[in-house]
Design goal:
The chain has about 290 residues and is an alpha+beta fold. It has 2 domains: about 130 residues, OB fold (Dihydrolipoamide Acetyltransferase, E2P) (Beta Barrel), CATH 2.40.50.90; about 90 residues, Nucleic acid-binding proteins (OB fold (Dihydrolipoamide Acetyltransferase, E2P), Beta Barrel), CATH 2.40.50. It contains 7 helices and 16 strands. The strands form 3 sheets. It has a 6-stranded mixed β-sheet with strand order 2-7-8-5-4-3, with helices on one face. A 5-stranded mixed beta barrel has the order 11-12-13-15-14. Strands 6-9 form a two-stranded antiparallel sheet. The radius of gyration is 19 Å and the shape is globular.
């Protein structure tokens, strides 16, 4: 996507040195239209970046209609976002992350058991399931990446998000339902249910991060620096964590408008050259805090 002229003036090389007189929201409104201006002011004081539509919302509110789905049967529910089918395939549900159950003597994360139970109850009366594979069909653990629906078309991800038992997460190219899932999470946040009733294990300020922190996190902090590396842009949050943005994705986003802003990033924490980092897989994984 080619950036509009109004945005290129702000995100060019002189943006960091020059005084920034135009409000960021106004620039984003010019660049992306009313979809940004209409961001819900009650969605936990944050707003996702305006992005091109990643899927078409159907008249009944569903983001996918599986014309060519695979009919499968369930063997067991592993946790809130992972199933095992009767043919022993492991399926990782696209678009969400749920709290981890306690394994290897570790404590279970808040609402992990509730998420698993919610899936078991949701699927209990459906003899068969619909499997709609992702564009990227497997993850690094060789699990099948897919949307899973009951025989009546109701989806697991939508069910968990609506109850506040999952967080939305986008990993391209499997972004078909990204916007719909973000809206469902925002509604659960406004209602203060499930994970959003209180601060969960996932939510943390960048300043409080330590090297022992791993796994999925929703991190908040202030952007104190933006570096241009050979293969990526690196956004520094409070000197506590770095967000790596590929050049291809950075070219579509107003990266420099984030300097000195408070943001929220979601993803999986990793160790990288002595510091913690998160890879930004999609613009909807980053929100600007008001």
């Amino acid at each position: 996507m080619r950036l509009p002229q109004a945005l290129r003036l702000v995100s060019g090389k002189g943006a960091v040195q020059a005084p920034f007189f135009v409000p960021v929201a106004f620039v984003l409104l010019l660049a992306f239209g009313p979809s940004f201006a209409a961001a819900d002011p009650h969605s936990n004081e944050s707003a996702p970046w305006p992005t091109p539509s990643s899927g078409i919302q159907k008249p009944d509110g569903r983001c996918i209609h599986p014309a060519n789905h695979e009919t499968v049967t369930l063997k067991r529910v592993t946790d809130g976002d992972t199933l095992v089918l009767s043919d022993d395939r492991r399926v990782r549900i696209i678009g969400i992350n749920t709290p981890e159950l306690g394994r290897n003597k570790q404590h279970a994360e808040l609402y992990a058991s509730e998420a698993k139970l919610a899936v078991q109850q949701f699927l209990s009366n459906s003899k068969t399931l619909k499997l709609i594979p992702g564009i990227d069909p497997f993850d690094r653990h060789s699990r099948t990446l897919a949307h899973i629906q009951r025989s009546d078309g109701a989806g697991i991800a939508e069910h968990l998000l609506a109850q506040g038992l999952a967080a939305h997460i986008v990993v391209s190219p499997n972004s078909r339902c990204a916007e719909a899932f973000a809206k469902l999470e925002a509604q659960a946040k406004r209602s203060g249910i499930g994970l959003w009733e209180q601060t969960s294990d996932w939510q943390i300020e960048a300043k409080r991060l330590r090297h022992i922190h791993r796994g999925f996190r929703i991190v908040r902090g202030s952007v104190v620096a933006i570096e241009h590396m050979e293969n990526a842009h690196v956004i520094d949050l409070d000197k506590g964590m770095k967000i790596h943005v590929s050049k291809a994705l950075a070219a579509k986003l107003p990266i420099h408008s984030l300097l000195n802003r408070r943001v929220e990033i979601r993803g999986w924490l990793q160790q990288h050259q002595g510091s913690l980092k998160v890879n930004l897989h999609h613009a909807l994984n980053l929100s600007i805090l008001h």
